[in-house]
């Protein structure tokens, strides 16, 4: 079953073409990594999925419905965590629990314990490290038990141990049946974590698919080799 379908999606702002005829599918239970350099269009795709941006043309379906009609089934972390620094850890999460009408307080305790913040629940978020804030943002994104999790560069600025923690936790969420789409610049991270990848450059989705299938298709041993090949050969053919 497809959780996300983009069919020939373009986004134009002013005279700038930000996405050009982007088509891809994300299947249920996959971890799909959108890989590309700064300004490639990764966040724009994420904004479209979340209903924050309208595509200029093309069609998008999320969990079989038009964008905006499945918001309660999506959890997300954007570049800026959107946490309230003057509120405590638990106040931040309670705010979202109320928005999503989650009244079971044991769910909050469970999630804060999962991310290792239960002992710090009464501390203000402004004194949290980047890693702690990102873990709280993850707990908050999961509060309504979403089917689809969207993570915009979730591990940027995290230390190596926290990066590994995030990676393992995302894999666990997939095993529980969730579908995850994330953006990243980091090839090694994407290779270790993702079941599927999409490579994007200047608004063009150059290729997407299962990592193993792409290695086979392009006769390459690593994701880095595929990336370099697509960047040089395919991209130049397209533009
Ligand atoms: N609201 C906007 N108005 C005009 N241009 C925009 C707007 N939002 C994004 N862009 C442009 O769209 C392009 C793609 O931006 P986007 O944020 O999607 O890239 P990205 O791949 O997420 O990059 P990064 O890895 O740096 O976050 C950039 O050239 C950016 O300047």
Automatic annotation (TrEMBL):
Q: What is this protein called?
A: ABC transporter, ATP-binding protein
Q: Which UniProt keywords apply?
A: ATP-binding, Nodulation, Nucleotide-binding, Transport
Listed SMART domains = AAA
Q: Where is the signal peptide?
A: none
Family to which the UniProt record says this protein belongs: Belongs to the ABC transporter superfamily.
One function term, GO molecular function aspect: ATP binding
CDD domains, from UniProt?
ABC_DR_subfamily_A
User: Is Transmembrane a UniProt keyword of this protein?
Assistant: no
């Amino acid at each position: 079953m497809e959780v996300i379908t983009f069919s020939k999606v373009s986004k134009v702002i002013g005279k700038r073409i930000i996405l050009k005829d982007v088509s891809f599918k994300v299947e249920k239970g996959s971890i799909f990594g959108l890989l590309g350099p700064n300004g490639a269009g990764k966040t724009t795709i994420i904004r479209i999925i979340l209903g924050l941006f309208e595509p200029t043309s093309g069609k998008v379906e999320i969990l079989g419905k038009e964008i905006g009609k499945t918001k309660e089934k999506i959890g997300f972390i954007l570049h800026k965590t959107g946490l309230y620094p003057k509120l405590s850890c638990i106040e931040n999460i309670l705010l979202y629990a109320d928005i999503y009408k989650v009244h079971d307080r044991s769910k909050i305790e469970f999630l804060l314990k999962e991310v290792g913040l239960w002992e710090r629940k009464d501390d203000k978020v402004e004194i949290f490290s980047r890693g702690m804030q990102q873990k709280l943002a993850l707990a908050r994104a999961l509060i309504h038990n979403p089917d689809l999790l969207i993570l915009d560069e979730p591990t940027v600025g995290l230390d190596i141990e926290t990066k590994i923690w995030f990676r393992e936790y995302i894999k666990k969420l997939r095993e529980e049946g969730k579908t995850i789409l994330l953006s990243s610049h980091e090839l090694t991270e994407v290779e270790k974590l993702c079941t599927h990848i999409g490579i994007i450059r200047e608004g063009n989705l150059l290729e997407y698919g299962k990592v193993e299938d792409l290695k086979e298709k392009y006769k390459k041993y690593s994701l880095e080799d595929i990336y370099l090949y697509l960047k040089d050969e395919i991209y130049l053919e397209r533009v």
